[in-house]
Every structure is written in C-alpha cells, then in structure tokens.
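forwarding from the other thread:

> can someone predict this with NDP?

sure thing
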Amino acid sequence: MEIGYIGLGAIGRPMAANLAASFPTTVFNRTSEVARQHVATRGGRLAEDLGDLAGVDVVCTCLPTDVEVAAVAGVLGPLLAPGTVWLDHTSGAPAGSRDVAAALAVHGVAYLDAPVSGGTDGAERGALTVMVGGDPAVLDRVRPVLGAVAERVVHVGPIGAGMAVKAVNNALLATSLRAAAEGLVALQAGGVDASTALEVINASSGRSFATERLIPERALDRSFPVTFALELLAKDAGLATGVVADAGFEAPLLALVARLTDEAALQLGAGADHVELVRVVEATADVELG
Ligand code: NDP
C-alpha cells in the first residue's frame, strides 16, 4: 500500500516517520521546507504539490481542523482513484467530517475519521490510540496502516463518531488539567508545597493524567515544551460543547471549561503549550507551582 501523508505538524511528523518505516510514503506539507527537512531526516518521498499524491492507496490527513481538511479534499479528492481510502487523523467537528466524507464519496473515495490520542511521545513510539468512525469493512482494509502508528484501534461508530469521542476526551483533559492547577495553586498559597500535595493525590482518588504526568513533568520544573498547542486544546473543548448540543442536552461544566480554556488560549497566544494553562491559574493567585 502506498501512503500519502498531509500535515507534518507536531503529531504528524512522528506518525509519517513511522509509516515511512513500513510503507512507501509520500509526504506533503503546506510549508514545503518542513516537508523537505522531514524527508531528509525521517524518510519518505517529497510531494511538491497535492497532485503528487494522486496515485496513493491511502491518504492520511493531520491538520488543525476539519476546515483545512475540507479544503485539501476539495483539491485532491477529484484526482484520487476510486477505492482510495482517506484516513483523517485531524481532531475536527463530527459534522465537518461527514461533509468531507460525502464530498469524497462522489469520487469513490472512502473516508474514515480516525483522530488520535497519546501525544507526541506516543506518536514517536508508534503507540497511539485511534478512535475510528465509519465503515468497519474499510477499517479492516487499513488496519495494517494504523498498526504502524497505533497500539490500540477502536471502532466507535459511524462517520463522525471518532471526532465526537476525541472532542470529549480532550474536554476531559482540559477539565482535569484546569481543576488540578486550581487545587494545587490553592494548596500552595495556603502553605502546602505542590509536589508534596501531588505525592498524596497521585496515591489517592483525585489523580489524573494531569497530576501524574503533565504537572510533575512540565509545570513543576517550568519546562513547558510545546507538544500540543493550547489553542488546539481550546478548539477541542469547544468541539465537545458541539457534541453536547447535538445530543440535545446541557453540560454546564464542559461549557465552562471550554470558555475558560478559550480565554486562556487567547491570553497566552498561539505559541503556548496546553500545559501552560497552569500559568493562567497561577497568575490569579500570584503563586508559582514547583
Ligand atoms: P500543528 O499546529 O503542530 O501542525 C498543523 C499542521 O497543519 C502543519 O503541518 C501545518 O502546516 C498544517 N496546516 C495548518 N493550516 C493549514 C492549511 N490551511 N492548509 C494546509 N495545511 C495546514 O498541529 P498538531 O500536529 O499538534 O495537530 C494536528 C491535529 O492533530 C490537530 O487537529 C490536533 O488537535 C490533533 N492532535 C494533536 C496532538 C498533539 O499532541 N500535538 C495529539 C492528538 C491530536 P505548516 O507547517 O505550513 O504550518
């Protein structure tokens, strides 16, 4: 199977590198210098433009939102052979993924929404979790491709269901990160060292990925590497409120977290990592964790 990979961002680069180790892989990136460097250091062939991907069997996209995917599909879709499979690893809106799927179906191209979880370190290890929406028979055809990037692949429902699960997962991440930051800042302001508090919390029922990994590994030592942009987390928390609205009920906590995460992303700007959400909470109490 020949792969075309579009979108060499923080998560796309390690995924494309793992694919190139197992399949003939051609990569395209909007900023072509990024793709040129990627090919030089991590393998694969360079696509100068989207047309260079016309002959591939599987297209993978990993772009910021479904809006960019729709634009790329509008150009590349008509050039693909019927029977091509489009694996969309973007975290986008469920309705947007259904629109892209319908536009590609006109050209005989099968679409699966296949957003990923596990972060850049999981992507480097080929150990992502993939949540897939779409036809299970199409999924079976591309399982070997997903096997090169993922440890776990879960079929979660029809097209759009993968996007919905991903949005809710990341809304939970935003919630636990924000809640942990608020609790730890309060404790430290009251005289309990954050790392001492975490020793207790991480052996107790309040623990989460934020308390076990993100805050100890990045906030306490003030390293804050940019692996997943805060503005992308805010986008996902917002998408989760859309999932709630589509289901026709109210989720006040998720709505509040989406608003707070959005405000934090605006405050810190485009270059901020998601864990820097902690900084916004610290500023409200004039406390620094760690
Ligand atoms: P980045 O911001 O690092 O990369 C975005 C990529 O999209 C770049 O290759 C960029 O190209 C390209 N791009 C941006 N706008 C356009 C456009 N208008 N047309 C074509 N290409 C465009 O994002 P990530 O790699 O972090 O995230 C990508 C997706 O994966 C997002 O949906 C994110 O939510 C999701 N995700 C991210 C994870 C992470 O840990 N980083 C984990 C799980 C999911 P250029 O180089 O030209 O800017």
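The two ends are 49 Å apart (CA to CA). thats all i got for now
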